[in-house]
């Protein structure tokens, strides 16, 4: 009689899972790290882990379509002679011409303008189309200073000094040779077809004391008219916010790790920075400690997808939010209608992130004129405006249910947390308790 | 000529007056006295005005200058003439870090020495330094010319793109992808013009060496990873 061992199924390692193994093989075969667009793909505690409580006996709601729930926000009230007022607190984040096609930038401008909000330039400078189609345009002042000039500084409505980005706090930019068309090369004063590295640090200042002097210079150049924003990645939100205030910012833009990017090393996107949820309370605390909450406005970004996310960010103390990835999806990024072409690129709709390669079937993250033509900027702008309006209405719906006549009246007391992690990071009581980790009580 | 005494007049008044000069105005000369190291003196000029600064200035003097002629009769702090578009800036004394950073055009003349990162990320500006320059100068320089009559510090022209560098003295070390290149007649001619414009009449173009990009880092290659 022969003996057979009982069958045990093959077991794969949780540490060395299929994705990890494939990545090791890819690195070994190509000798290059993986560069991609979009934000972190790992699951991190997020707005989904918070819920609103709604009204009850102690708090009465506002009537859905009858009673007003204001959504306007004014940015730059601290020092700027000309603060900007938006009809919705949802702004379009900085995304470069170069990373995005001219049509995509135009669509963002059109959509934002229809919805009464602002859009933002990016690494590479301001284009005439973008200026022309954006009623309110924020001009980024980045380490590379590609395309930076005083004329555009003066025709901007606000200036955003970019210190960091949530997808890559501490990292610079990268635009690979494939996307450097004549126009992009010309705007950046570089030869066509070469990889463009954007520095990770500003060339002419380091540290908060220098930043204060830099901001003085920008204000003097623009005669103190423009609101000056400082954008930081979610790394040390308490101190970065406090230092931005000290340096003279009108507005702090805080971008958590889920924030998208045009092209960054995957290892950077996935392993550096803090989740958006964990960044907001420390930043708000810093503003409150300095007596500056609502005087210096806070714009939060990184993974904002819906009116619920907007309402939650505002309830935690933000004045406004910014969207990047969601805006691209609204205009047509990763649309399943291009599925066969995504498959040809070895991916699938919803997972396409090789934005740096310039082959985007949707014609958004490309400089190829044939692909770019696929995006109709007027129709795409309309879609973005619709989406912005839906998100605004969703946020209002929640705010009214919480009895608030302005989105800014939402407050942490309107929220509960579903998980211990979210409770700890957002300092919101775990549902059904009055407690969150770090706080005493039951 | 209008005179601004920064001991008694706010900086704002000076810059505001510079920005509101009417096109075609007759009186386009300004004098600044008692600058006492003030930051952002004469920034954002966009007309062909002349400014004589009688003393030393702090950060970003003549920042983003577009067409003005600014002379500092003293030394300049960090970032002098940063992002200049056009015009001329002359520093009679020394300049601190990042002189001419990201400049796109115009001429920056430093009669003394310049500290580290002179011409960092330059994008078309011409910079002539009569003395020596510090480390990491012309880092990521994209275009334009940096001329140094004295010596250059460590890592000159690191990660250089298409900026052209001319040094008369010694170079302590070259940065990644920066190499010495042949001085051709066209370079000698160009250098002679720059030296003349900068009032460097006692030196000859033949005394300089030329440096530029080896262009090996222009497209990513893993075998060059140490150099990135
Ligand atoms: C295609 C793309 C290009 C971007 N380019 C820039 C840029 O030039 N400058 C910048 O500060 N941030 C840039 N970002 C980041 C956005 O401004 C913003 O921080 C981020 O997209 C917000 O997160 P979300 O994508 O989850 O909405 C870019 C993002 C994307 C998706």
Task: Please give a handful of descriptors for the protein shown.
heterodimer, A: 442 residues, alpha/beta, TIM Barrel, 8-stranded parallel β-sheet, two-stranded antiparallel sheet, 15 helices, globular, B: 228 residues, mainly beta, 11-stranded mixed β-sheet, 2 helices, 10% helix, binds flavin mononucleotide
Present the secondary structure layout.
The complex is a heterodimer of chains A (442) and B (228).
Chain A: H1 18-30, E1 35-36, E2 50-52, E3 73-75, E4 84-86, E5 90-92, H2 102-115, E6 119-120, H3 128-133, E7 137-141, H4 150-155, E8 158-162, E9 173-175, H5 182-187, E10 196-198, H6 207-221, E11 228-233, H7 237-246, E12 251-255, E13 264-265, H8 266-271, H9 276-289, E14 297-301, H10 307-315, E15 320-323, H11 325-331, H12 339-344, H13 369-372, H14 377-401, E16 415-417, H15 420-426
Parallel strand pairs in A: 5-15, 6-7, 7-8, 8-11, 11-12, 12-14, 14-15
Antiparallel strand pairs in A: 1-13, 2-16, 3-4, 9-10
Chain B: E1 2-5, H1 11-19, E2 29-33, E3 50-54, E4 66-72, E5 86-91, E6 107-110, E7 123-129, E8 143-148, E9 164-167, E10 178-181, H2 185-197, E11 209-213
Parallel strand pairs in B: 1-2, 2-3, 3-4, 4-5, 5-6, 6-7, 7-8, 8-9
Antiparallel strand pairs in B: 9-11, 10-11
Bound molecules: flavin mononucleotide.
């Amino acid at each position: 009689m022969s003996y057979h061992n009982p069958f045990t199924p093959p077991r794969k390692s949780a540490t060395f899972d299929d994705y990890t193994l494939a990545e090791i093989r890819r690195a070994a075969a190509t000798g290059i790290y993986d560069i991609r667009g979009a934000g972190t793909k790992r699951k991190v505690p997020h707005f989904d882990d918070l819920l609103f409580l709604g009204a009850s006996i102690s708090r009465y709601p506002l009537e859905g379509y009858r009673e007003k729930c204001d959504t306007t926000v004014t940015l730059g009230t601290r020092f700027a002679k000309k603060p900007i007022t938006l009809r919705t607190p949802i702004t379009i984040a900085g995304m470069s011409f170069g990373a995005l096609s001219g049509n995509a930038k135009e669509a963002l401008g059109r959509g934002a303008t229809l919805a009464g909000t602002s859009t933002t330039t990016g690494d590479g400078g301001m284009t005439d189309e973008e200026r022309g189609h954006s009623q309110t345009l924020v001009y980024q002042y980045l380490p590379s200073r590609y395309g930076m000039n005083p004329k555009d500084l003066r025709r901007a409505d606000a200036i955003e000094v970019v210190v960091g980005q949530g997808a890559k706090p501490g990292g610079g930019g990268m635009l690979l040779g494939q996307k450097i068309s004549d126009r992009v090369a010309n705007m950046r004063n570089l030869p066509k077809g070469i990889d463009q590295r954007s520095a990770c640090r500003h060339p002419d200042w380091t540290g908060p004391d220098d930043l204060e002097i830099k901001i003085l210079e920008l204000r003097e150049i623009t005669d103190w008219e423009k609101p000056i924003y400082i954008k930081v990645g979610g790394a040390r939100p308490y101190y970065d916010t406090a230092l931005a205030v000290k340096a003279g910012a009108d507005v702090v833009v805080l971008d958590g790790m889920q924030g998208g990017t045009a092209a960054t090393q995957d290892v950077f996107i996935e392993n550096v920075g803090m989740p958006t949820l964990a960044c907001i309370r420390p930043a708000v605390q810093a503003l409150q400690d300095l007596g500056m909450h609502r005087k210096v406005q806070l714009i939060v970004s990184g993974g904002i997808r819906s009116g619920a996310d907007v309402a939650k960010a505002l309830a935690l103390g933000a004045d406004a939010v910014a969207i990047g990835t969601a805006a691209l999806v609204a205009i047509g990024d990763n649309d399943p209608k291009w599925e066969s072409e995504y498959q040809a690129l070895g991916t699938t709709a919803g997972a396409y992130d090789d934005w740096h390669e310039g082959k985007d079937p949707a014609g958004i993250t490309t400089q190829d004129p044939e692909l770019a033509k696929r995006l109709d900027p007027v129709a795409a702008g309309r879609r973005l405006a619709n989406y912005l309006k839906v998100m605004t209405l969703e946020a209002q719906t929640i705010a009214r249910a919480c009895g608030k006549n302005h989105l800014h009246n939402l407050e942490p007391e309107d929220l509960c947390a579903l998980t211990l992690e979210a409770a700890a990071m957002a300092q919101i009581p775990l549902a059904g308790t009055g407690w969150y980790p770090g706080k005493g009580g039951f | 000529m209008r005179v601004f005494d920064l001991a008694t007049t706010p900086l704002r008044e000076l810059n505001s007056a510079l920005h509101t000069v009417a096109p075609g105005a007759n009186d386009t000369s300004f004098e600044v006295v008692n600058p006492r190291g003030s930051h952002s003196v004469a920034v954002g000029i966009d007309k062909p005005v002349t400014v004589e600064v009688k003393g030393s200035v702090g950060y970003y003097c003549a920042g983003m200058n577009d067409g003005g002629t600014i002379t500092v009769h003293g030394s300049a702090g960090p970032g002098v003439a940063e992002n200049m578009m056009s015009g001329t800036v002359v520093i009679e004394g020394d300049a601190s870090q990042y002189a001419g950073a990201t400049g796109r055009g115009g001429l920056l003349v430093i009669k003394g020495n310049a500290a580290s990162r002179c011409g960092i990320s330059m994008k078309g500006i011409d910079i002539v330094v009569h003395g020596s320059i510090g480390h990491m100068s012309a880092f990521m320089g994209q275009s334009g010319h940096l001329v140094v009559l004295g010596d250059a510090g460590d890592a000159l022209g690191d990660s250089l793109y298409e900026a052209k560098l001319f040094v008369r003295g010694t170079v302590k070390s070259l940065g990644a992808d920066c190499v010495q290149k042949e001085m051709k007649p066209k370079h000698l001619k160009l250098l002679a013009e720059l030296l003349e414009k900068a009032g460097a009449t006692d030196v000859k173009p033949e005394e300089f060496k030329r440096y530029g990009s080896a262009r090996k880092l222009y497209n990513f290659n893993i075998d060059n990873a140490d150099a990135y």
